[in-house]
């Protein structure tokens, strides 16, 4: 189409920039990824990590609980653990984990420990209590466990006295075996 007559535009030739003076085009931008897919992948990964962490926490708790629970699996085991906690370590809290809640029949064992502590204080000695084999026998309430306690005292690394006593312990199954009574039998 021709411009109207007398028009100035029609008489001016078209001008173009020479190709060597053109500005280079900017770098092409990368096509955008759909954001919905990325969010979905991140959510799935976060969910899996959360499940792994929760599962690890549960397994850790169960292993810790099993490792720290007192062993009350058998009558002789519970008597051994009770004697170690009460007479050797002298830890009443730990010993209570192996004793019946109404441990009124454990007075003789408490008297033995009081005697040991008095000897240590009065004679400036170290008194150690040890025991031999633990024999089991059934009774009407649970089981009886019999053993020989050896009570020895020493000072400056030299034994001063030693005596042996036969003891019998009543053990009852109350959510695991527990020591309910103890007495000297000879």
Top keywords for this entry?
alpha+beta
Residue fraction in strands: 25-35%
Q: What's the helical proportion of residues?
A: 25-40%
Listing every helix as H and every strand as E from the N terminus to the C terminus, the arrangement reads HHHHHEEEEE
Mass-distribution shape: rod-shaped
Largest sheet, in brief, is: 5 strands, antiparallel
Q: Label the structural class.
A: alpha+beta
Please report the total strand number as a whole number: 5
Low-confidence stretches: none
Rg, Å, rounded: 43 Å
- Distance between the first and last residues' Cα: 134 Å
Give the mean pLDDT.
88
Helix tally equals 5
In short:
40% of the residues lie in helices and 25% in strands. The protein has 186 residues and is α+β, with helices and mostly antiparallel strands.
Can you walk me through this structure?
40% of the residues lie in helices and 25% in strands. It is α+β, with helices and mostly antiparallel strands and 186 residues long. Strands 1, 2, 3, 4 and 5 form a 5-stranded antiparallel beta sheet that branches. The longest helix has 34 residues, at 35-68. The protein starts with 7 loop residues before the first helix and ends with a strand.
Helix and strand topology:
Blueprint: H1 8-11, H2 35-68, H3 75-88, H4 92-96, H5 107-123, E1 126-131, E2 135-138, E3 143-155, E4 158-173, E5 177-184
Antiparallel strand pairs: 1-3, 2-3, 3-4, 4-5
């Amino acid at each position: 189409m021709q411009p109207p007559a007398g028009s100035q535009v029609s008489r001016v030739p078209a001008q173009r920039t020479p190709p060597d003076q053109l500005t280079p085009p900017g770098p092409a931008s990368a096509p955008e990824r759909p954001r919905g897919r990325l969010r979905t992948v991140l959510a799935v990964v976060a969910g899996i990590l959360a499940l792994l962490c929760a599962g690890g926490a549960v397994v850790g708790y169960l292993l810790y609980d099993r490792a720290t629970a007192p062993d009350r699996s058998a009558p002789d085991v519970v008597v051994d653990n009770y004697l170690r906690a009460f007479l050797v370590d002298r830890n009443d809290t730990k010993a209570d984990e192996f004793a019946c809640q109404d441990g009124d029949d454990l007075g003789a064992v408490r008297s033995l420990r009081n005697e040991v502590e008095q000897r240590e204080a009065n004679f400036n000695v170290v008194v150690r209590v040890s025991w031999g084999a633990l024999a089991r026998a059934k009774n009407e309430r649970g089981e009886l466990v019999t053993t020989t306690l050896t009570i020895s005292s020493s000072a400056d690394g030299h034994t001063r006295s030693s005596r042996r006593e036969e003891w019998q312990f009543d053990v009852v199954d109350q959510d695991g075996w527990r020591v309910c009574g103890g007495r000297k039998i000879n």
